[in-house]
Amino acid sequence: MENNEKDTYVLTFDFRKEETNSVVFFENVINVLGGFEDFNKVICKGIDSEIAVSSYLIDVQSGSIKLRLKDIISKIPDDLLKDITDPKALIGHFLVGAKYKALKLLDDTKALPALDRETKIYDAICEEVKSLPVNPLMPSNIDKSELLSTISTISQAAKNIDKVSFGVEGQDVVDVEVIDVSFSYKVPPAPTKMVQVISAELIVKKPDLLGSSKWEFVFDKNISATVEDTDFLSKIKNKEIGFFCDDKVKAKMRIEVSLNERQEVLDTKYFIEQIEEVIRAIPQEKQGNLI
Fold it and tell me: What does 75-89 look like in DSSP terms, one character per residue?
Protein backbone atom coordinates (compact mmCIF):
# COMPACT_ATOMS: atom_id res chain seq x y z
CA MET A 1 0.00 0.00 0.00
CA GLU A 2 1.64 3.17 -1.20
CA ASN A 3 1.59 6.06 1.29
CA ASN A 4 0.17 9.33 0.00
CA GLU A 5 0.84 12.00 2.65
CA LYS A 6 -2.18 13.99 1.53
CA ASP A 7 -4.37 11.12 2.75
CA THR A 8 -2.69 10.63 6.12
CA TYR A 9 -3.27 12.22 9.48
CA VAL A 10 -1.75 11.93 12.94
CA LEU A 11 -3.52 11.38 16.25
CA THR A 12 -1.44 12.09 19.34
CA PHE A 13 -2.66 10.81 22.71
CA ASP A 14 -0.95 12.38 25.73
CA PHE A 15 -0.98 10.62 29.09
CA ARG A 16 0.65 10.79 32.52
CA LYS A 17 3.12 7.97 33.01
CA GLU A 18 2.40 5.73 35.99
CA GLU A 19 -0.79 7.70 36.71
CA THR A 20 -3.03 6.55 33.87
CA ASN A 21 -5.05 3.33 34.02
CA SER A 22 -3.91 1.46 30.93
CA VAL A 23 -7.21 -0.34 30.25
CA VAL A 24 -9.31 2.82 30.56
CA PHE A 25 -6.80 4.80 28.46
CA PHE A 26 -6.87 2.36 25.56
CA GLU A 27 -10.66 2.00 25.75
CA ASN A 28 -10.88 5.76 25.19
CA VAL A 29 -8.28 5.59 22.39
CA ILE A 30 -10.48 2.97 20.70
CA ASN A 31 -13.56 5.18 21.19
CA VAL A 32 -11.79 8.14 19.55
CA LEU A 33 -10.68 5.97 16.61
CA GLY A 34 -14.17 4.49 16.32
CA GLY A 35 -15.63 7.99 16.28
CA PHE A 36 -13.40 8.98 13.36
CA GLU A 37 -14.28 5.74 11.54
CA ASP A 38 -18.00 6.47 11.94
CA PHE A 39 -17.42 10.09 10.85
CA ASN A 40 -15.91 8.80 7.60
CA LYS A 41 -18.89 6.52 6.99
CA VAL A 42 -21.47 9.25 7.63
CA ILE A 43 -19.73 11.66 5.25
CA CYS A 44 -19.26 9.02 2.55
CA LYS A 45 -22.87 7.83 2.85
CA GLY A 46 -23.97 11.44 2.45
CA ILE A 47 -21.91 11.75 -0.74
CA ASP A 48 -23.02 8.38 -2.11
CA SER A 49 -24.26 5.27 -0.32
CA GLU A 50 -22.02 2.99 -2.41
CA ILE A 51 -18.72 4.48 -1.19
CA ALA A 52 -16.81 2.14 1.14
CA VAL A 53 -14.04 3.47 3.40
CA SER A 54 -11.75 2.11 6.14
CA SER A 55 -9.00 3.69 8.24
CA TYR A 56 -5.62 1.95 8.30
CA LEU A 57 -2.74 2.30 10.76
CA ILE A 58 0.42 3.52 9.01
CA ASP A 59 2.81 4.02 11.91
CA VAL A 60 3.06 4.21 15.73
CA GLN A 61 5.63 6.51 17.33
CA SER A 62 6.95 6.51 20.88
CA GLY A 63 6.75 9.20 23.58
CA SER A 64 3.13 10.19 23.64
CA ILE A 65 1.24 7.60 21.66
CA LYS A 66 1.25 8.92 18.11
CA LEU A 67 -0.66 7.10 15.40
CA ARG A 68 -0.35 7.79 11.69
CA LEU A 69 -3.50 6.74 9.85
CA LYS A 70 -4.82 6.73 6.32
CA ASP A 71 -8.37 6.55 4.96
CA ILE A 72 -8.58 4.05 2.11
CA ILE A 73 -11.52 4.21 -0.29
CA SER A 74 -12.18 0.66 -1.47
CA LYS A 75 -15.32 1.28 -3.50
CA ILE A 76 -16.78 4.26 -5.34
CA PRO A 77 -19.44 4.57 -8.09
CA ASP A 78 -17.91 5.04 -11.52
CA ASP A 79 -20.09 8.04 -12.40
CA LEU A 80 -19.84 9.88 -9.06
CA LEU A 81 -16.80 12.03 -9.85
CA LYS A 82 -16.59 12.62 -13.56
CA ASP A 83 -13.42 13.95 -15.20
CA ILE A 84 -11.36 13.18 -12.05
CA THR A 85 -8.24 11.11 -12.70
CA ASP A 86 -8.10 9.47 -9.24
CA PRO A 87 -11.49 9.86 -7.47
CA LYS A 88 -10.53 7.51 -4.61
CA ALA A 89 -7.55 9.68 -3.74
CA LEU A 90 -9.71 12.80 -3.93
CA ILE A 91 -12.30 11.39 -1.50
CA GLY A 92 -9.55 10.14 0.83
CA HIS A 93 -7.93 13.57 0.89
CA PHE A 94 -11.32 15.21 1.39
CA LEU A 95 -12.11 13.04 4.45
CA VAL A 96 -8.91 14.14 6.17
CA GLY A 97 -9.74 17.79 5.54
CA ALA A 98 -13.34 17.27 6.71
CA LYS A 99 -12.15 15.80 10.01
CA TYR A 100 -9.80 18.73 10.56
CA LYS A 101 -12.61 21.15 9.67
CA ALA A 102 -15.00 19.49 12.15
CA LEU A 103 -12.45 19.64 14.99
CA LYS A 104 -11.62 23.28 14.24
CA LEU A 105 -15.35 24.05 14.31
CA LEU A 106 -15.57 22.43 17.73
CA ASP A 107 -13.00 24.89 19.01
CA ASP A 108 -14.41 27.93 17.19
CA THR A 109 -17.99 27.39 18.40
CA LYS A 110 -17.38 26.70 22.09
CA ALA A 111 -19.05 29.95 23.18
CA LEU A 112 -22.28 29.33 21.24
CA PRO A 113 -25.49 27.90 22.73
CA ALA A 114 -25.78 24.16 22.11
CA LEU A 115 -28.39 24.26 19.33
CA ASP A 116 -26.64 27.11 17.50
CA ARG A 117 -23.34 25.25 17.82
CA GLU A 118 -24.82 22.07 16.36
CA THR A 119 -26.36 23.96 13.44
CA LYS A 120 -23.15 25.83 12.64
CA ILE A 121 -21.04 22.64 12.67
CA TYR A 122 -23.52 20.70 10.54
CA ASP A 123 -24.03 23.50 7.99
CA ALA A 124 -20.27 24.05 7.61
CA ILE A 125 -19.57 20.35 6.99
CA CYS A 126 -22.41 20.20 4.45
CA GLU A 127 -20.88 23.16 2.61
CA GLU A 128 -17.56 21.30 2.50
CA VAL A 129 -19.27 18.28 0.95
CA LYS A 130 -21.00 20.48 -1.62
CA SER A 131 -17.58 21.72 -2.75
CA LEU A 132 -16.77 18.27 -4.13
CA PRO A 133 -17.04 18.05 -7.95
CA VAL A 134 -19.63 15.27 -7.79
CA ASN A 135 -22.11 14.42 -10.48
CA PRO A 136 -25.01 16.91 -9.97
CA LEU A 137 -27.47 14.06 -10.55
CA MET A 138 -26.20 12.45 -7.34
CA PRO A 139 -26.93 15.08 -4.64
CA SER A 140 -25.29 14.76 -1.22
CA ASN A 141 -27.38 14.37 1.93
CA ILE A 142 -25.52 14.25 5.25
CA ASP A 143 -27.63 12.94 8.13
CA LYS A 144 -27.47 15.61 10.83
CA SER A 145 -28.02 13.36 13.85
CA GLU A 146 -25.52 10.77 12.64
CA LEU A 147 -22.85 13.39 11.90
CA LEU A 148 -23.18 15.21 15.23
CA SER A 149 -23.28 11.89 17.11
CA THR A 150 -19.91 10.84 15.66
CA ILE A 151 -18.33 14.19 16.54
CA SER A 152 -19.78 13.92 20.06
CA THR A 153 -18.28 10.43 20.42
CA ILE A 154 -14.84 11.77 19.50
CA SER A 155 -15.11 14.77 21.85
CA GLN A 156 -16.41 12.80 24.82
CA ALA A 157 -13.86 9.99 24.41
CA ALA A 158 -11.04 12.56 24.22
CA LYS A 159 -12.37 14.06 27.46
CA ASN A 160 -11.05 11.04 29.36
CA ILE A 161 -7.50 11.43 28.00
CA ASP A 162 -5.08 14.18 29.06
CA LYS A 163 -4.97 15.59 25.51
CA VAL A 164 -5.70 14.33 22.01
CA SER A 165 -4.30 16.18 18.99
CA PHE A 166 -5.22 15.75 15.35
CA GLY A 167 -2.58 16.62 12.75
CA VAL A 168 -2.93 16.92 8.97
CA GLU A 169 0.17 16.04 6.98
CA GLY A 170 0.85 17.67 3.66
CA GLN A 171 4.27 18.35 2.14
CA ASP A 172 6.27 20.17 4.86
CA VAL A 173 3.27 21.49 6.79
CA VAL A 174 1.54 19.80 9.72
CA ASP A 175 -1.62 21.50 10.97
CA VAL A 176 -2.51 20.45 14.51
CA GLU A 177 -5.84 20.83 16.26
CA VAL A 178 -6.31 19.81 19.90
CA ILE A 179 -9.66 18.03 20.17
CA ASP A 180 -12.14 20.09 22.17
CA VAL A 181 -13.87 17.97 24.82
CA SER A 182 -16.91 20.16 25.56
CA PHE A 183 -19.18 18.91 22.77
CA SER A 184 -21.96 16.51 23.73
CA TYR A 185 -24.84 15.70 21.43
CA LYS A 186 -27.97 13.71 22.14
CA VAL A 187 -30.23 12.60 19.33
CA PRO A 188 -33.35 14.78 19.66
CA PRO A 189 -36.63 13.08 20.48
CA ALA A 190 -39.14 12.42 17.75
CA PRO A 191 -41.30 15.43 16.93
CA THR A 192 -44.22 16.02 19.28
CA LYS A 193 -47.62 15.80 17.61
CA MET A 194 -50.62 17.87 18.69
CA VAL A 195 -54.04 16.81 17.38
CA GLN A 196 -57.16 18.97 17.39
CA VAL A 197 -60.58 18.12 15.97
CA ILE A 198 -62.89 21.03 15.19
CA SER A 199 -66.09 21.84 13.32
CA ALA A 200 -65.37 24.38 10.58
CA GLU A 201 -66.95 26.04 7.58
CA LEU A 202 -64.53 25.86 4.65
CA ILE A 203 -64.79 27.57 1.27
CA VAL A 204 -64.13 25.00 -1.44
CA LYS A 205 -61.32 26.45 -3.52
CA LYS A 206 -60.31 23.43 -5.58
CA PRO A 207 -62.10 20.09 -5.24
CA ASP A 208 -60.43 16.84 -6.19
CA LEU A 209 -62.89 15.25 -8.56
CA LEU A 210 -60.65 12.29 -9.44
CA GLY A 211 -59.90 11.20 -5.88
CA SER A 212 -56.12 11.11 -6.26
CA SER A 213 -54.98 14.27 -4.47
CA LYS A 214 -55.82 16.71 -1.68
CA TRP A 215 -58.61 19.26 -1.74
CA GLU A 216 -57.87 22.95 -1.42
CA PHE A 217 -59.96 25.03 0.97
CA VAL A 218 -59.99 28.51 2.44
CA PHE A 219 -60.01 28.34 6.23
CA ASP A 220 -58.19 31.15 8.05
CA LYS A 221 -55.80 30.79 5.10
CA ASN A 222 -55.45 28.58 2.04
CA ILE A 223 -55.01 24.96 3.13
CA SER A 224 -54.71 21.56 1.49
CA ALA A 225 -56.58 18.74 3.20
CA THR A 226 -57.07 15.01 2.80
CA VAL A 227 -60.76 14.12 2.66
CA GLU A 228 -61.39 10.89 4.57
CA ASP A 229 -65.20 10.85 4.32
CA THR A 230 -65.70 7.88 1.96
CA ASP A 231 -69.50 8.33 1.71
CA PHE A 232 -69.04 11.91 0.57
CA LEU A 233 -66.33 10.92 -1.93
CA SER A 234 -68.63 8.24 -3.36
CA LYS A 235 -71.32 10.87 -3.96
CA ILE A 236 -68.75 13.06 -5.73
CA LYS A 237 -67.70 10.11 -7.88
CA ASN A 238 -71.31 9.29 -8.72
CA LYS A 239 -72.02 12.95 -9.58
CA GLU A 240 -74.60 13.26 -6.83
CA ILE A 241 -72.81 16.34 -5.47
CA GLY A 242 -71.05 19.12 -7.36
CA PHE A 243 -69.68 22.52 -6.46
CA PHE A 244 -70.15 26.12 -7.59
CA CYS A 245 -67.92 29.13 -7.01
CA ASP A 246 -67.71 30.12 -3.32
CA ASP A 247 -69.63 27.07 -2.09
CA LYS A 248 -68.73 25.98 1.41
CA VAL A 249 -68.74 22.76 3.38
CA LYS A 250 -69.41 22.37 7.06
CA ALA A 251 -66.94 19.72 8.13
CA LYS A 252 -65.41 17.87 11.02
CA MET A 253 -61.71 18.64 10.52
CA ARG A 254 -58.66 17.13 12.23
CA ILE A 255 -55.54 19.29 12.47
CA GLU A 256 -52.20 17.56 13.22
CA VAL A 257 -49.30 19.83 14.21
CA SER A 258 -45.72 18.50 14.58
CA LEU A 259 -43.43 20.41 16.97
CA ASN A 260 -39.67 20.17 17.52
CA GLU A 261 -37.92 20.12 20.90
CA ARG A 262 -38.19 23.92 21.08
CA GLN A 263 -41.96 23.70 20.48
CA GLU A 264 -41.56 25.29 17.06
CA VAL A 265 -43.98 24.17 14.35
CA LEU A 266 -42.38 21.77 11.89
CA ASP A 267 -45.44 20.77 9.91
CA THR A 268 -49.23 21.14 9.90
CA LYS A 269 -51.56 18.64 8.21
CA TYR A 270 -55.33 18.87 7.69
CA PHE A 271 -57.80 15.98 7.40
CA ILE A 272 -61.55 16.20 6.68
CA GLU A 273 -63.04 13.38 8.71
CA GLN A 274 -66.67 14.09 7.78
CA ILE A 275 -68.57 16.47 5.51
CA GLU A 276 -71.66 17.44 7.51
CA GLU A 277 -73.25 19.86 5.05
CA VAL A 278 -72.70 21.55 1.69
CA ILE A 279 -73.52 25.27 1.99
CA ARG A 280 -74.40 26.82 -1.36
CA ALA A 281 -73.16 30.35 -2.14
CA ILE A 282 -76.16 31.02 -4.44
CA PRO A 283 -79.74 29.71 -4.40
CA GLN A 284 -80.39 26.33 -6.01
CA GLU A 285 -82.61 27.76 -8.80
CA LYS A 286 -79.86 30.15 -9.96
CA GLN A 287 -77.04 27.61 -10.12
CA GLY A 288 -75.30 27.09 -13.46
CA ASN A 289 -72.66 24.59 -14.39
CA LEU A 290 -71.07 22.52 -11.67
CA ILE A 291 -67.29 22.38 -11.09
Answer: E--TTTSTT-S-HHH
